[in-house]
Automatic annotation (TrEMBL):
The keyword Nucleotide-binding does not apply. The lineage of its organism: Bacteria, Pseudomonadati, Pseudomonadota, Alphaproteobacteria, Rhodobacterales. It holds the Pfam family Response_reg. The keyword Phosphoprotein applies. GO terms for biological process: phosphorelay signal transduction system. SMART domains: PP2C_SIG, REC. GO terms for molecular function: phosphatase activity. SUPFAM superfamilies: CheY-like, PP2C-like. InterPro entries: Bact_Sigma-Reg, CheY-like_superfamily, PPM-type-like_dom_sf, PPM-type_phosphatase-like_dom, Sig_transdc_resp-reg_receiver. Gene3D superfamilies: 3.40.50.2300, PPM-type phosphatase domain (3.60.40.10). Residues 20-136 form the Response regulatory domain. This is Phosphate regulon transcriptional regulatory protein PhoB. PANTHER family: STAGE II SPORULATION PROTEIN E, STAGE II SPORULATION PROTEIN E-RELATED.
Length: 423
């Protein structure tokens, strides 16, 4: 019956998180008075007649609230409070010091030692009850906060595990994406194709490639899929299959003739076929820009299609420059689109640069974009002394040096560099 009445009293008073109270006082009479009131209010009460004894009890059975006298023989209440706070515990306990000292300096010492509140003796029951209620509100908030922090820490641990798994998958995905470009440079007689592929993250939406179905016949391309990240990378993997350099029977840019050899299809036809493929897939929302070119290495006759991609830069052997193409629509944006062919002749010593907008739309340190004029100037600076992959590496290095400090790459950067020499 006593336990029931205590529980009822506690429910009426609502002391929240405080259930177990430790009373520490060398005076048996003082302890008896405090214990009587605390039990009346429904608390489970522990008693200790010294700081040392109280400290031992707290090691095995920490209370929610400590009410301790300041002046005690041996370990004082102040020393006990300091040692109590130094204990390794996951649970915060409220600490009230009982004292006859009311000077501000003494109060400051108690707060420095870790006390939460003070009561001046002789005690009044109503004041003690009010201070315990205030402490209970603080403990409730503190423990609620601790619980939320534990939940956050658990969630963060789970997120870290998920992030590590995703990071591992992305690293593998990058290797797979790099396998789509098995060689960054290849010679075709005296001509050469070099490629650059620099994603802004683990994986990217740019793709470059080349293929040659026979002597003197060569095709190469630069593609930029809309967006970034995993979805764009998946699209590049798909396009890599459509324009395979090793499986000609799967390459949409080729046609087998007389069951003997593969011929390169006109670039505009390739663009239209790719557009039809993408538009037929209702679930695919991505589109891509592309420059695809084929060349007869015997005479330098270049045919290309530009589908929303930046204008290729032709660097003539005599120092002249020309941007090729008239723009065109991206592939996969609208159905039944026709694409226009651009033709020119390259002479021995001429060079052609295909590039993604990661170059021309790069933000520079002065707040402007590189744009076509900046790209042309950069290419002319690199061209006399560099060739092949060295030319592209120098271009990329110059681009990173010109970027706004601390910005880093915010888009994928890719390029194809073709150097022509008559077969």
């Amino acid at each position: 019956m006593a336990e029931v009445s205590q529980a009822n009293a506690r429910a009426e008073l609502d002391f929240g998180a405080i259930q177990k109270v430790l009373v520490v006082d060398d005076s048996r009479l003082q302890r008896r008075i405090l214990v009587a009131s605390l039990k009346k209010w429904g608390f489970e009460v522990l008693e200790a007649d010294s700081g040392e004894a109280a400290l031992n009890m707290c090691t095995t059975d920490p209370p929610d609230l400590v009410v301790s006298d300041w002046i005690m023989p041996g370990m004082s209440g102040l020393e006990f409070c300091r040692s109590f706070r130094a204990m390794d515990s996951d649970q915060y306990s409220y600490f009230i010091l009982l004292t006859s000292k009311s000077e501000k300096q003494e109060v400051a010492r108690g707060l420095d030692a870790g006390a939460d509140d003070f009561l001046i003796k002789p005690l009044e029951a109503d004041e003690l009850r009010a201070r315990i209620s205030a402490g209970a509100r603080i403990l409730d908030m503190q423990r609620e906060l601790s619980e939320k922090n534990r939940m956050i820490e658990t969630a963060l641990d789970e997120l870290k595990l998920a992030h590590d798994a995703i990071d591992k998958d992305l690293m593998q995905a990058r290797k797979i994406q790099e396998s789509l470009v098995p060689e960054l440079m290849r010679d075709f007689g005296g001509s050469r194709v070099s490629m650059l592929l620099k994603p802004c993250g683990h994986i990217g939406g740019d793709l470059v490639g080349m293929f040659s179905p026979g002597v003197n016949r060569l095709g190469f391309y630069s593609i930029d899929v809309s967006g970034h990240g995993i979805t764009s990378a998946m699209m590049t993997a798909r396009l890599g299959g459509y324009l395979s350099s090793s499986h000609f029977d799967q390459n949409l840019a080729m046609e087998k003739r007389f069951d003997k050899f593969y011929a390169l299809l006109p670039p505009e036809q390739v663009a239209e076929t790719l557009n039809s493929r993408l538009m037929a897939d209702a679930g695919v929302e991505e589109y891509f820009t592309m420059v695809y070119a084929i060349i007869d290495l015997r005479n330098g006759h270049l045919k290309m299609v530009q589908a929303g991609h930046p204008h290729p830069l032709l660097l003539r052997g005599d120092g002249g420059t020309q941007f090729l193409g008239e723009g065109g629509l991206p592939i996969g944006l609208l159905p039944d689109v026709t694409f226009q062919r651009t033709e020119t002749y390259m002479k021995p010593g001429d060079k052609l640069l295909l590039y993604s907008d990661g170059f021309t739309e790069c933000s520079l340190a002065d707040g402007t974009l590189l744009e076509e004029d900046g790209l042309r100037a950069m290419a002319l600076d690199c061209a006399p002394d560099r060739s092949g992959t060295e030319f592209l590496d120098d271009m990329f290095w110059r681009l990173t040096q010109a970027m706004a400090p601390g910005n880093g790459m915010d888009d994928d950067v890719s390029a194809v560099f073709f150097e022509y020499d008559k077969a």
